[in-house]
Write a structure and sequence with these properties.
Length: 165
């Protein structure tokens, strides 16, 4: 338990500075705003549930384009805290669906996006980096980058299914 106690002391020290709380709150507020923006900009897409805030590892929300709904697939817009980057993931609505489509992508030879190494313990079928170094001082520009990246990702997944049915 000594290691945990040392970590708690460091945690407290960092929190006393106030920047972690400010940054974390800003990230979560931005993600909630981005989620709402997707709801408004893409009325044909389903934006289920809320924001998963995570344990300062990742925070995300899901989007279900109409083309993926019947396949029980969804797209997640993910912020990876430690790397401070945005990713877009393709995931199943449950582990069974996820495993089924993971095998389909893996066996297809399609290499546009690399499937994750294994579905064991994974939350995604495909993980793709959208933005390596987001500019949180230009939220409108960041939103456009993310929306464009998600649109391209979704279209590429649709193209995969059009050619691998």
């Amino acid at each position: 338990m000594a290691a945990l106690q040392a970590s708690i002391r460091e945690y407290k020290k960092q929190l006393e500075k106030g920047e972690i709380q400010k940054a974390y709150k800003g990230i979560l507020e931005y993600l909630m705003s981005l989620r709402t923006n997707f709801e408004k900009q893409y009325p044909d897409w389903t934006v289920p549930g809320g924001l998963y805030t995570g344990y300062m590892d990742m925070s995300y929300f899901s989007i279900i384009p109409t083309s993926l709904k019947e396949r029980k697939l969804k797209i997640a817009v993910v912020f990876i805290h430690e790397a401070c980057r945005f990713e877009v993931w393709l995931a199943g609505v449950n582990k069974g669906v996820q495993a089924e489509y993971w095998h389909m992508f893996k066996e297809s030879g399609w290499n546009f996006y690399e499937p994750v190494a294994t579905t064991q313990g994974a939350d995604a079928i495909i993980e793709h980096i959208l933005i390596l170094d987001p500019d949180f001082d230009d939220l409108d520009g960041l939103t456009r980058q993310i929306q464009n990246g998600v649109q391209v990702f979704s279209a590429n997944i649709d193209n995969f299914f059009a050619n691998h049915n």
